[in-house]
């Protein structure tokens, strides 16, 4: 397993978010290191999406400390998250079926020179970023409507890479995918780790989570309920933490050494 750097890329401590009487997150901790895939798991309503939205700057927590590279930061909006090197791929992917791969990658940030679209530059960058991801997209000019579900995921993930992120949050990237497309998407996640990024993977699928993640963080009723080494934890232990049959406790503080 890859040795973790001492200072996490992202450290969240005591994150709390309430909506009226609903406690979405209560005193939640989460850390992500470079070259690490951290799976965030939990039952429906456990707080996974809320935590992802805090990282993405979509939701501002009521309290808690967020650090990037050991320095305290605030993430008041998505632009701030982007500036801090955080990219998020939400479940809807936000892609346009009527556009081709390159147009989707550069949607809203097209390259222009003297008002003229720089098609060949954008194509070259599209090829480069898709190659980095080992995407199976047939061509950068293929219309999105011709792509498989797995290939679409690769376009959505590649689009985040154009912003040179350091942390990528993936919200249920394999939900409703076939076995073959799921396997393809898992290779993209591994590739993100190989590229040195920290990845937060939200998933309900324990097979995916155990196949691709280094660490598994369980949320239950908005609270930390277990932190597991994905290589050694049993299926039963993880499910026990998710359902509440067992409570394993908070993630370790301070950060554990390489596992
Ligand atoms: N904007 C909101 N207003 C009120 N309650 C909210 C809001 N967003 C989330 N919640 C509540 O916070 C809790 C955690 O929701 P969240 O969506 O983060 O859970 P989740 O683990 O992502 O669940 P799922 O797997 O079903 O998506 C739930 O009780 C949810 O109803």
Automatic annotation (TrEMBL):
Pfam families: ABC_tran (PF00005)
One MF term in the entry's GO annotations: ATP hydrolysis activity
Entries under InterPro entries matching the protein: AAA+_ATPase, ABC_carbohydrate_import_ATPase, ABC_transporter-like_ATP-bd, P-loop_NTPase
CDD domains on file: ABC_Carb_Monos_I (cd03216)
Protein's UniProt keywords contain Repeat: no
Keyword Cell inner membrane attributed: no
Annotated SMART domains: AAA
UniProt-listed Gene3D superfamilies: P-loop containing nucleotide triphosphate hydrolases
Keywords from the UniProt entry: ATP-binding, Nucleotide-binding
Annotated ranges, domain ABC transporter: 10-246
Protein name, as recorded: Sugar ABC transporter ATP-binding protein
Source organism of the structure: Cellulomonas shaoxiangyii
């Amino acid at each position: 397993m890859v040795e973790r750097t001492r200072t996490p890329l992202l450290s969240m401590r005591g994150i709390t978010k309430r909506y009226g009487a609903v406690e979405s997150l209560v005193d939640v901790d989460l850390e992500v290191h470079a070259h690490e895939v951290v799976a965030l798991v939990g039952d429906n309503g456990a707080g996974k999406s809320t935590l992802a939205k805090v990282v993405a700057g979509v939701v501002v927590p009521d309290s808690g400390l967020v650090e990037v590279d050991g320095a305290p930061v605030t993430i008041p909006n998505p632009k701030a998250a982007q500036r801090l090197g955080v990219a998020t791929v939400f479940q809807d992917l936000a892609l346009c079926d009527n556009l081709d791969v390159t147009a989707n990658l550069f949607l809203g940030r097209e390259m222009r020179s003297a008002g003229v679209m720089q098609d060949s530059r954008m194509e070259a960058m599209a090829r480069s970023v898709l190659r980095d991801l080992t995407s199976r997209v047939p061509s950068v000019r293929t219309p999105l409507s011709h792509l498989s579900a797995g290939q679409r995921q690769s376009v959505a993930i590649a689009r985040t890479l154009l912003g040179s992120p350091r942390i990528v949050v993936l919200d249920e990237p394999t939900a409703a995918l076939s076995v073959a497309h799921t396997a393809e998407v898992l290779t993209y996640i591994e590739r993100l780790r190989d590229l040195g990024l920290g990845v937060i993977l939200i998933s309900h699928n324990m097979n995916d989570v155990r196949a691709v993640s280094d660490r598994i963080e369980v949320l239950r009723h908005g609270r930390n309920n277990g932190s597991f080494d994905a290589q050694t934890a049993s299926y039963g232990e993880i499910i026990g933490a998710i359902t509440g049959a067992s409570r394993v406790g908070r993630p370790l503080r301070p950060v554990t050494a390489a596992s």
